[in-house]
């Protein structure tokens, strides 16, 4: 059967979406098309785990002028409440192809953002004849070790019912909180995201756990999409860093990788016009180098770019007090520190005694006893720690401390 598109209106985003059942799985969808674009390849938005159709209203309104638009919520994604812990990203790609078959859609151009990017990648990789072009934003071929620890920690915090710690941490993990004055992300967005996390119901919590565990399994995507692709992210994306996005673009031989200036993982909110225009220029085969507010990146300029997004300060004789999960106290030397972590030197006796199985409390006595919770990422000569994010106030005090070191 042919897909029945709706007339674009704000009310269409508020009403209940249409649902298609495939092998016991529910796919929620919404589609728009102008009469003159009938027969063209549809653009399909696949967003992050907590984005809903309304998140893409502005994108749809603009891109609708040139292409049919489909919005799809797969099981456990967006507003789709169906739990799907057993499905992998490859399974999601297969569901989209079955959706296309039901509605006699020969090809699509998927736009996969954040969590949705892995599904878009596998769709283009496993079903190349069904994808015309590919767009991915805020993506990575694998979850790096530091964020793996933070995401695993977030699941435990949620399961323990520590909603304040979980909600503030979710915000600080997703956005680059220390760069918010540069990205100009609004306080309203930050507060709205925090309130949404605080209001998660049992189904939302389980979907977060399932989706995060699925993401944690991402330890290298497989396949090589042959279509033209655009990969983009914010220049201060600390969730999926620019370098990780660049590595993903290298998985697609015919890809272009761009950075959206003065934005982070939520570039599509902070610099929406630049992001939408980059979609348009890519889809029309225009030169992206002509677009203001972006940087077209290649091996040359990526090689010159510092992979760290925050300055690391090298210190001497800065004492710290550590307390492990067994309440043992140790005195160490803070060798370096950034907004995201630090290195601490301990003597050999302390190294043997400290409990590495859980987090540490790191106290900076020269800063009125600022205490930070840290996880040991790895250990060579020193302890390499990453800070848990879950307290806006502590994050701002740490910013102040680092400003003094600058």
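-> sequence recovered:
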């Amino acid at each position: 059967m042919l897909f029945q598109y709706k007339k674009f209106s704000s009310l269409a985003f508020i009403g209940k979406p249409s649902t298609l059942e495939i092998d016991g799985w529910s796919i929620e969808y919404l589609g728009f098309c102008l009469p003159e674009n009938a027969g063209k390849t549809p653009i399909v938005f696949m967003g992050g785990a907590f984005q809903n159709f309304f998140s893409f209203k502005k994108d749809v309104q603009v891109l609708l002028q040139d292409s049919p638009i489909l919005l799809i919520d797969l099981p456990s994604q967006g507003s789709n409440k169906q739990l799907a812990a057993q499905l992998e990203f490859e399974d999601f790609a297969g569901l989209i192809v079955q959706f296309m078959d039901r509605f006699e859609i020969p090809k699509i151009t998927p736009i996969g953002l954040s969590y949705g990017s892995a599904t878009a990648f596998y769709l283009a990789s496993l079903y190349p004849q069904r994808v015309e072009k590919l767009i991915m934003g805020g993506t990575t071929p694998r979850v790096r070790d530091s964020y793996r620890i933070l995401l695993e920690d977030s699941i435990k915090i949620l399961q323990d019912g520590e909603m304040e710690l979980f909600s503030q941490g979710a915000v600080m993990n997703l956005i680059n909180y220390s760069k918010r004055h540069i990205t100009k992300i609004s306080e309203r967005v930050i507060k709205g995201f925090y309130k949404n996390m605080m209001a998660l119901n049992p189904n939302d919590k389980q979907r977060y756990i399932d989706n995060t565990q699925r993401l944690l399994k991402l330890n290298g995507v497989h396949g090589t999409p042959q279509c033209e692709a655009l990969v983009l992210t914010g220049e201060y994306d600390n969730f999926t860093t620019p370098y990780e996005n660049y590595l993903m673009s290298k998985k697609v031989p015919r890809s272009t990788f761009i950075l959206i200036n003065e934005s982070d993982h939520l570039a599509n909110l902070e610099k929406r016009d630049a992001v939408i225009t980059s979609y348009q220029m890519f889809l029309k085969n225009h030169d992206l180098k002509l677009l203001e507010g972006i940087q077209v990146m290649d091996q040359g300029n990526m090689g010159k770019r510092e992979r760290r997004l925050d300055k690391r300060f090298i210190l001497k004789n800065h004492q710290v007090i550590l307390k492990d999960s067994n309440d043992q106290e140790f005195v160490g030397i803070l060798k370096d520190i950034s907004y995201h972590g630090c290195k601490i030197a301990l003597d050999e006796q302390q190294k043997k005694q400290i409990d590495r199985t859980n987090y540490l409390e790191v106290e900076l006595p020269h800063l009125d006893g600022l205490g930070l919770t840290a996880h040991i990422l790895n250990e060579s000569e020193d302890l390499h720690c990453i800070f848990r994010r879950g307290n806006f106030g502590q994050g701002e005090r740490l910013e102040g401390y680092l400003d003094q070191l600058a």
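The chain has three domains: 10-142+219-303, 145-213, 313-405.
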